[in-house]
Amino acid sequence: MPPPPAPMSFAAIVRRTLTANLSSSATARSYYKSRSRKPALYDIISPRGGPDESLRPILDQWADQGNNVRFAELQRLVRDLRRHRRYSQALEVSEWMIKKDLFTPSAVEHPLQLNLIGKVHGYSAAEIYFHNLPEQEKTYKTHGALLNCYMREGKVDKSLAHLQKMQAMGIALTPFNFNNIMCWYTRIKQYEKVPGILAEMRAREVLPDNYSYRICLNAYGAMLDINRMEEILTEMETQPHIAMNWTTFCDAANFYIQAGHRGKAYDMLKRTEERLDKKDGIVYNQLISLHAKLGNKEEILRLWELEKISCTKYLNKDYMNMLKSLVKLGEFEVAEKVLRDWELSGNCFDYLVPRVLFRGYCDVGQYEKAEAVLERIMDEGNVTVDSSWGKLASGYSSKGDMEDSLRSMKVALSPRVTRRNWKPKLEVVAKLLHWLGDKGNSDEVKALVHLLRPALGGSREVYDSLIEAILRGFGFLDVLKPIYEGRMDKQGNMEQAKLSNLFMVR
Q: Is 263 exposed, middle or buried (0-12, 13-18, 19+ CB in 10 A)?
């Protein structure tokens, strides 16, 4: 008979208990995970994002396989599809639910359904849906949804007629209904029609809100009708329900600048600063940009320092805005300091920030300093883009610095930079080939052609642009021939002869 087991120590009991608990919990987790692996309906539908792909077969198959079809899940699916602008599929799911008697649209769902129909099939289909509704379900929200369908397609006459019908029915009109129409006129730059809609609001005893006034103010400003713009400002200030905010004064300042009223612009900017939220970087950016238009370097620097003190963190867009303002004024030394501050800020690298200074240097022809910006980016282990080096190549070429142009072009065509479907300017390529042909440097020609082939291909445009350059490089025509292999039999007789003669030159 085996001896009885020795009693377990307390530590051993604890270890065994913990091991058992961990094992059981791991099993439980594993079982839960395996159950959750079963795809949900949304997991199947979500990747099907093609604009023409129908979801109805997927929904039918899901139901035919005996899966649960829950109204709440499908409703959530419709909402997600709408949010991702997959309106056609959202409407298809909604109509499938109705067909399967999963729900009957009520006064709450009708506006959403009508809005989807309008987006997918247009306002005419939305009208049919609306007219087929029971009268008791034609609520102000449903009327509003149809009004939005009209405005989405710019049917202003129908919108105004529908507003009149709504008012006749005793439906209270809101500024939102009229603001949509004014926004439409603004979008298509028919600013002269905006004040008429504001007058229509007043005639229908609808009190304009802050947004209504701002749309009209911006319309007058866009037409540089400063007197009428000032009338709107005065009216806003006399209305007890209107809270004058900084955006209104910024808008007015911008139009004063455009109209050449510098003194009035300064006054608006002062009033803006009086109302700013000292922790809101957006306000500072607006003020800095407008002072840059006025050429006021001191105010720009003052506001920048104030922003750095007031805001706990300033973002890449804040640096970009400051750099743009300084470049606009030609203050490159200060811009260099701001760029250095950004490099030390700990913000994530965004090529758009240093690109502001790079482009500024290019615009004034200081290509060496522009290149220094790119070199510094690469020295710090970050990436540049091919189009920037191409811009340098073009700039150097325009100054006759062909060595630097060639060097920049090689970087632009190399794998060292980020590719963004940039194509080199054909006139720059032709000029480089002329220059290399005159020098008689066969190796350089071969190297450049090798780099150019993936970027330019053998298109007709390239062929026509480079013919003259090829003629200048007599001894190297055979190097360029591979670019156009297979094209000679595709050209007309005259083009074929021209190509053949070129490649026979030795």
A: exposed
pLDDT of 68 above 60: yes
Of 69-78, 295-304, 391-400, give the lowest mean pLDDT range.
69-78
Query: Residue 44's closest CA among 17, 15, 65, 13?
Result: 65
| Digit-coded pLDDT (tens) for 160-190 | 899 889 988 888 888 988 998 999 999 999 9
How far the first Cα of the chain sits from its last, in Å, is 106
H runs (alpha helix) in 294-401: 297-310, 316-328, 332-343, 352-363, 367-379, 386-398
If you write DSSP's letter for every residue of 49-97 in order, what string do you get? --TT--SHHHHHHHHHTT----HHHHHHHHHHHHHTT-HHHHHHHHHHH
Q: What confidence score (pLDDT) does residue 458 get?
A: 55
CA 260 to mean position of chain CA atoms: 32
DSSP one-letter code for 486: T
The strand pairing partners of 418, in sequence order, are 385
Question: How many Å apart are CA 124 and CA 146, to the nearest integer?
Answer: 10
Torsion sign (Cα): 492, 495, 498, 502: negative
Fill in the amino acid letter for 98: I
Q: What is the pTM of this model?
A: 0.72
Q: Report which of 408, 320, 419 is spatially closest to residue 371, judged by C-alpha positions.
A: 408
* Structural domains present in the chain: 349-422 (1.25.40.10), 435-506 (no CATH)
Token output for 379: 């020295």
Q: Identify the CA nearest to 150 among candidates 113, 178, 123.
A: 123
Tokens of 453: 């082939």
SS3 category, 385: strand
**Cβ distance 118 to 148 under 8 Å?**
yes
For residue 174, report the phi and psi dihedrals to the nearest 5 degrees: -125, 160
What is the C-alpha separation between 268 and 247, in angstroms, rounded? 10
Please check the confidence at residue 146 and state whether its pLDDT lies above 90: yes
Average pLDDT rounded to a whole number, residues 252-257? 97
Q: Which of 246, 294, 289, 300 is nearest to 271 (CA)?
A: 246
Give burial (CB, 10 Å; 0-12/13-18/19+) of 126: buried
